[in-house]
Specification:
alpha/beta, Aspartate Aminotransferase, domain 1, Aspartate Aminotransferase, domain 2, three-stranded antiparallel beta sheet, about 40% helix, binds pyridoxal-5'-phosphate
């Protein structure tokens, strides 16, 4: 086996690889699916006569909100259609509560805290850090959050203001929250406080590429649990049409809706209504969006399957990997605390992976175990090379063969070779 790893390494080294699998971005062929959007012809006014070229309709044009209402299964009066970024809506939600939440704005709390299932999305943690809100991690299970951990954490204090979840194809480990898990989360959270905010980033709502367990529409579960005023759901077309060039949606109600309207009224006069109209004309209805997403699935699935094929070959004792049925990421969990080492070794050979730890608050993975792989934004050939490097180095690090390798690096050229014990 040593000889086999050396040969693998040497052939990869000769290729002078430079591959970046850090971020979950759509690849060019996926973007091409929406090219007709670029020069689609649209009228100058919305269905109810608003001039798309001028200021107005701060919460989105009626037909975009109608589409959002179908997509999120929420009444149109609860829907806001925004700019191109759902992350911005999430940020504005936190900002609005920070400044204006009633009865006490979060900024006036001594130590406001948010519960964050881990592993999670690095930008969520960065956002909470911006506000000085502590992100308190709880584990994820196969069907959602660890409810016992959630309950236990809430028992420890009064300053918890909310929870931030990606309820489908969770970034990065792909969990799909069950309806039961969500209902129980609502029950526990609203018993803790009727101001506790359930913030859902539904970025991967329609991004299945393999058969996926059914979920009730989230807003339906929200209504059944009677937590509409405490819930905010966001989503966007960033991975439906163009990365950073789609439109975003939010569903919320009551006080939460008032807050977001208040903060947005100061910040932005109105979203880009022309882009909203282009998207509505392009898709027309949710059925067409779903057919469009099937085309994405055809392009994305082979890359995930290719990555799984490499990961399957790793000895089981090295670790385990998530096998998501949608979304943009795979996680590999090493059984030894070697994630940072693996990421560093891969970088030395030209494969960039999201820094270890970044899927945890404060970049701290207590087990130094979780590695996020993003297989979409590279060709299959590049992905094969990247996975080859990755799996080689998982084995090298797991079996502690890197010691001699590192010793060698200090003395010689960085990319010269690999020595095994
Ligand atoms: C969980 C999650 N939320 C939000 C985003 C960004 O979405 P948007 O472009 O709509 O801001 C991403 C992109 O990677 C994501 O993974």
């Amino acid at each position: 086996m040593h000889q086999e790893i050396i040969e693998r390494f040497n052939s990869l080294k000769e290729k002078q690889i430079s591959i970046d699998i850090t971020r979950g971005k759509p690849d060019k062929d996926q973007l091409d699916l929406s090219n007709d959007l670029i020069d689609i012809s649209i009228p100058t006014s919305s269905d109810d006569g608003a001039d798309l070229r001028n200021y107005g309709e701060p919460f989105g044009i009626i037909e975009a909100r109608r589409l959002g209402s179908e997509l999120l299964n929420a009444p149109i009066e609860n829907i806001l259609a925004g700019e191109q970024s759902s992350l911005l809506l999430t940020y504005q939600t936190v900002l609005s509560n920070f400044l204006f939440a009633e009865p006490i704005p979060w900024k006036n709390l001594k130590n406001p805290k948010f519960i964050c299932p881990v592993p999670g999305f690095d930008r969520h943690f960065m956002m909470l850090e911006d506000f000085g809100i502590e992100a308190v991690p709880i584990p994820l299970t196969d069907d959602g959050i660890d409810l016992n951990a959630f309950e236990d954490v809430l028992k420890t204090g009064d300053d918890y203001v909310g929870i931030l979840c990606v309820p489908k194809h969770s970034n990065p480990s792909g969990e799909i929250y069950s309806d039961e898990n969500l209902k129980k989360m609502f029950e526990i959270g609203s018993q803790y406080s009727n101001k506790f905010l359930f913030l859902f980033d539904h970025a991967y709502l329609i991004h299945d590429f393999l058969p996926t367990p059914e979920q009730k529409p989230l807003w339906q579960v929200v209504e059944e649990s009677n937590v509409q005023d405490q819930t905010v759901v966001t989503t966007s077309f960033s991975k439906v049409t163009f990365g950073g060039g789609g439109i975003s949606f939010m569903a919320t109600s009551g006080h939460s809706l008032d807050l977001i309207k208040k903060v947005r009224t100061t910040m932005i006069i109105c979203p880009d209504k022309l882009n909203q109209k282009r998207h509505v004309e392009f898709f027309k209805n949710v059925e067409n969006i779903k057919s469009h997403m099937k085309k994405h699935a055809e392009l994305v699935r082979p890359k995930f399957e290719l990555a799984y094929d490499y990961l399957k070959k790793l000895p089981e004792e090295c670790g385990s990997f998530s096998k998501p049925t949608g979304g943009y990421f795979i996680t590999y969990s090493t059984s030894k605390p070697i994630a940072s080492k693996v990421v560093k070794l891969c970088k030395d050979l030209g494969v960039l992976i999201t820094p270890a730890g970044s899927t945890f608050p404060k970049n701290y993975d207590p087990n130094d175990s979780v590695i996020r792989l993003a297989p979409t934004y590279v060709s299959k050939e590049e992905l094969a090379d990247a996975m080859n490097v990755f799996t080689t180095y998982v084995e090298v690090a797991h079996f502690e063969r890197y010691k001699i390798f590192l010793h060698f690096l200090q003395k010689h050229d960085k990319r010269v070779g690999l020595f095994l014990v």
